[in-house]
# Entry
Amino acid sequence: MTQGWQIGKVAERTGLGIHAIRFYERQGLLRPPVRSEGGFRLFGPDTVRDLRFIREAQNLGFSLSEIRDLLVLRRTNSPGCSHVRDLLAQKLRAVRAKLSELEQLEQELQAALRKCNRDLRRNPGRAERSCPVLEELGRRNGNEED
# Structure
């Protein structure tokens, strides 16, 4: 009989759900598992290592396509360090750009909140009937009726 773990045991060992493992299998990220005499998939230690690798690579922001490339490099022991470095640098640039966008969004939200608080303190009745922030958002997007 062939040795290996069924998908439930692999899920326990990796912290992934069964559906995620099947998804990765369908996406070609995992080598096809052997089958037991009863037709159950049997996964070996290499698959568990690959699944942990996939999860960690996703945590770093790599796409499934990029992870597929990384797995090929890893499995073939290819000297892909410069390629991996380039991918990491690209991810870092994307994260920094996103951080910049989020900082800008934070500033806009803080300004809108300050405006709400100021208007509620100055004119509590008016602000409850007509929110100046909603009016401004309407003007910005051209949604306000003329």
Remarks:
- The radius of gyration is 26 Å.
- Residues 81-122 form the longest helix (42 residues).
- The chain has seven helices and two strands.
